[in-house]
Design a protein that fits this description.
The complex is a heterodimer.
Chain A lengths: L2 H10 L5 H10 L3 H18 L10 H8 L7 H10 L8 H19 L16 E8 L6 E5 L9 E3 L7 E8 L2 E9 L3 E3 L6 E4 L5 E7 L6 E3 L1
Parallel strand pairs in A: 1-9
Antiparallel strand pairs in A: 1-4, 2-3, 2-5, 5-6, 5-8, 7-8
Helix pairs in contact in A: 1-2
Chain B lengths: L1 H28 L5 H8 L4 H17 L3 H13 L4 H16 L5 H12 L4 H27 L9 H14 L4 H13 L6 H16 L4 H13 L4 H5 L1 H10 L4 H14 L38
The chains are: A alpha+beta, B mainly alpha.
Chain lengths: ~220, ~300
């Protein structure tokens, strides 16, 4: 910085002493110094005529946001993304819209069925199992159990030989099922050839059939 | 301007997507005709009876039971001549079980069974209540088992184990005996899984159903667990006992021989984790030949 530039800065700041003022006046005699000084004077006059605006409260953040990102490591960018303070602008329309979205989402969630499949059934394979019973004289034999909600009018055994040997084959998923036979829609009977039994709590004995996990199999009572 | 446009688009999109769900939710809230209502509309009930069953049904649905299940139970009950007050009692038991966060399927199934067998509703309610109690005890046992280190490895294992342990409790296995079983499973470290506890409890129930006392059944299952047998082998204890009994032995004698066989088998090192086991061939289920007897006609207890 030259001596004239130093004095010019001080002059513009109004900080020249009387001796410095005389020195500045002497240096102004030079054409280049005088041109520089006149340019400064014009700039000052121009700025004095310009309307001043008060910057907004978020001026600093907006300016910083427009600055080009300095090259930073990915993890630094991720940290900044999460932790950098941000100015959130809102108005009632935005707030209302967000509240509306939240309310609709909550109500829509509530209407989802209470029994949603949590995951794929790990045991989807079925096994064919034949239930049979010797019941000469019976007009109709049905099967009721845990596999059909104990409905007595759904699964009927057929007497294919006509000699009272009733049977039906059901596809069953792996598991354990309690069941009984029902004669003519009214009389309940325990399968005498079941592999296991369990008291039903009502004074009767349910037969049990166990269907193991293997893929395909056939079984008989 | 752009912000306002975006807000407007967002509102329209959400309204279009959410309106059907919202209207359905509002419909449910106002109890507009659903399965429950349709069931009661077709039922031939007095106004008081209809109101009672409707109120109880709605209460059960609010507790979290699926409306279809509630409607089905009501429909079956009414078809079998169950009175509204009796039906209300059954629905109370169901609601209580659901509020305790118990598996609801076994309770519902027991009610359906009782209705189908024309059991007096009061007895159905008593049996279902007892079952709920067993499920509650079982759930506590299963939770303790988890705290002791038994791992849940797949969805639904905890619930299945709860049902199976409840079944064992219903067959006379005591809580202490079931806790002993649980601790034995927990001690096997790598093999300390909920599916293994389920298999152990199921095998115990199976052996009891074949005539063993709960103590004997647990000793047999315990021998298998100590030996580090796989879940599959534990599930097959029932078949092995049946084979022993085919030789003419009693269940107790067969179980004693079975325990000796297990103890003499080569041990599985350190309780292999289930996933490390090789897949086994499928076997045909045993055909149990029983002498032909004339069918015994039994009537459900009344």
């Amino acid at each position: 910085m030259t001596r004239f530039e130093e004095l010019l800065d001080a002059k513009l700041a109004g900080e020249l002493s009387p001796d410095e003022n005389r020195e500045f006046a002497a240096l102004l005699m030079l054409d280049e110094n005088r041109s520089a000084f006149e340019a400064h004077e014009e700039t000052v006059a121009l700025l004095e005529g310009v309307e001043r605006h008060v910057p907004s409260s978020s001026f600093t953040e907006e300016v910083l946001a427009r600055l080009p990102d300095r090259r930073s490591r990915p993890w630094e960018k991720a940290c900044d993304l999460v932790w950098a303070p941000r100015t959130v602008r809102w108005n009632f329309a935005t707030a209302f819209a967000l509240s509306f979205v939240l309310v609709v989402t909550a109500l829509a969630w509530k209407t989802l069925p209470s029994r949603m499949a949590v995951g794929p059934d790990p045991r989807p394979v079925v096994t064919l199992f034949r239930f049979s019973l010797d019941a000469p004289g019976a007009q109709q034999v049905s099967l009721a159990g845990e596999f059909n909600g104990w409905r007595t009018d759904e699964i009927f055994l057929a007497d294919v030989t006509g000699r009272g040997r009733f049977s039906v084959t059901l596809p069953l998923k792996p598991g354990r099922y309690a069941y009984m036979f029902v004669f003519d829609g009214a009389t309940w009977m325990t399968d005498p050839r079941a592999e296991a039994y369990r008291d039903d709590g009502f004074g009767n004995k349910n037969a049990l059939v166990n269907i193991a996990v293997p893929t395909v199999g056939h079984g008989d009572t | 301007m752009a912000t306002r446009r975006l807000v407007g688009i967002a509102i329209l999109t959400v309204t279009a997507l959410g309106a059907p769900s919202m209207s359905r939710a509002i419909a449910q809230e106002r109890s507009k005709p659903g399965e429950l209502s349709r069931t009661l509309e077709t039922a031939n009930l007095s106004p008081e009876g209809n109101a009672l069953v409707r109120a109880k049904g709605a209460e059960v649905v609010r507790a979290g039971v699926a409306e279809g299940d509630v409607a089905s139970l009501i429909q079956r009950g009414l078809a079998r001549g169950v009175q509204p007050a009796e039906l209300a009692r059954l629905l109370d038991v169901l609601a209580q079980a659901k509020r305790q966060d118990l598996p609801i399927e076994p309770v519902l199934d027991k009610m359906k069974e009782g209705i189908a067998k024309r059991i007096p509703p009061a007895r159905i309610a008593a049996v279902a209540s007892r079952l709920s109690g067993e499920l509650a005890t079982s759930r506590d046992l299963v939770r303790r088992a988890e705290r002791e280190g038994i791992r849940v490895e797949a969805t639904g294992e905890r619930e299945r184990a709860t049902e199976v342990v409840a079944d064992a409790l219903g067959r006379g296995v005591s809580v202490k005996e079931m806790e002993d079983l649980s601790r034995q499973v927990a001690r096997s470290r790598q093999a300390a899984t909920m599916s293994r506890l389920e298999a152990g409890a199921q095998a115990t129930s199976d052996l009891v159903s074949m005539g063993l006392s709960p103590r004997e059944a647990l000793e047999t299952v315990g021998a298998a667990l100590s030996k580090g047998l796989s879940r599959r082998d534990i599930e097959r204890l029932r078949e092995r006992l049946a084979q022993e009994m085919k030789r003419g032995e009693s269940a107790a004698e067969g179980a004693s021989r079975l325990r000796d066989e297990i103890r003499a088998e080569r041990p599985e090192k350190g309780g292999k984790p289930e996933k490390a086991e090789k897949p086994e061939k499928a076997e045909k289920p045993e055909k149990i030949e029983k002498p032909e007897k004339p069918p015994k006609v039994e009537r459900p207890g009344r």
